[in-house]
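re: the backbone from monday

yeah here it is again, tokenized this time
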């Protein structure tokens, strides 16, 4: 694979936001580790690539067509942010803070990047294609393809949502905290934390899981979890004020009108990404 032009997408920094979670000293330590990783990534790239561009993920709007490879420096959130601007350009994730960040989608650390780049240039490793999901409303996409997960819930964490859920001919009216919807790549994240069972990162099956169901009196729900075949779809109709979709965390936050339906199906745009055999075996 030719590596003439590479775009580096990195995680930015906000002392105001991060200091809510960590002390300023701890934040500075983490930030220093990230910046060291970014520096090492740029050193490795500039030694083997003709043209390198760098952008903060918060400023990313689209991927230039001339780019051969995307290198993300951060964690899974940075890979996810990049994925929403990607169609067919392969991505390589570098975990800038190993030991702190999970790096589920990251094949390398900064100090190992040169070896990975050499393997790519010599065609010893090739990108894998991870399945993504598509969200439709009235038959049209309402956001870019989704790699990790979709959460349908209320815009208020203290309120329940009322909705119809339908898979094939089976349909049910429910009340609860909402739904997790996940493909294989994101099944070890929120879906798993909600007691769903994670499944293969390469699986093109889509699964749903009702979180905190609150059945109406004398009602029993039969659609608390389930799977959608690659050619099938899950349709949800929100009948509550404040129904909201959170896509890949908060990358997309989509408010739904009362009575608005959305459908989730397999996307025809898988994500090309470099992963290790160990990652693909998850």
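seq for it, each position gets an aa:
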């Amino acid at each position: 694979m030719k590596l003439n032009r590479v775009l580096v997408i990195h995680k930015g920094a906000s002392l105001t936001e991060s200091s809510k979670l960590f002390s300023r000293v701890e934040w500075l330590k983490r930030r220093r580790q990230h910046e060291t990783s970014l520096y090492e990534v740029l050193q490795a790239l500039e030694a083997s690539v003709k043209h390198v561009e760098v952008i903060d993920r918060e400023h990313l709007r689209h991927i230039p067509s001339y780019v051969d490879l995307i290198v993300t420096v951060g964690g899974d959130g940075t890979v996810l942010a990049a994925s929403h601007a990607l169609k067919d350009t392969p991505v390589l994730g570098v975990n800038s803070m190993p030991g702190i960040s999970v790096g589920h989608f990251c094949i390398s650390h900064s100090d190992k990047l040169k070896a990975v780049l050499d393997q790519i240039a010599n065609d010893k490793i090739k990108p894998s294609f991870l399945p993504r999901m598509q969200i439709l409303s009235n038959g049209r996409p309402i956001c870019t393809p989704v790699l990790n997960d979709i959460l349908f819930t209320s815009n208020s964490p203290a309120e329940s949502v009322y909705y119809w859920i339908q898979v094939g001919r089976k349909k049910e009216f429910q009340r609860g905290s909402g739904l997790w919807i996940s493909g294989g790549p994101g099944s070890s994240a929120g879906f798993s934390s909600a007691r769903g069972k994670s499944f293969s990162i390469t699986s093109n099956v889509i699964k749903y899981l009702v979180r905190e169901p609150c059945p109406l009196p004398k009602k029993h729900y039969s659609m608390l979890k389930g799977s959608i075949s690659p050619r099938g779809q899950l349709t949800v109709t929100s009948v509550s004020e404040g129904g909201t979709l959170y896509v890949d965390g908060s990358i997309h936050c989509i408010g739904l009108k009362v009575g608005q339906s959305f459908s989730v199906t397999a996307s025809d745009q898988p994500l090309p990404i470099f992963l290790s055999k160990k990652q693909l075996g998850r």
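The longest strand covers residues 170-183. Residues 133-266 form a domain with the Tumour Suppressor Smad4 fold (CATH 2.60.200.30).
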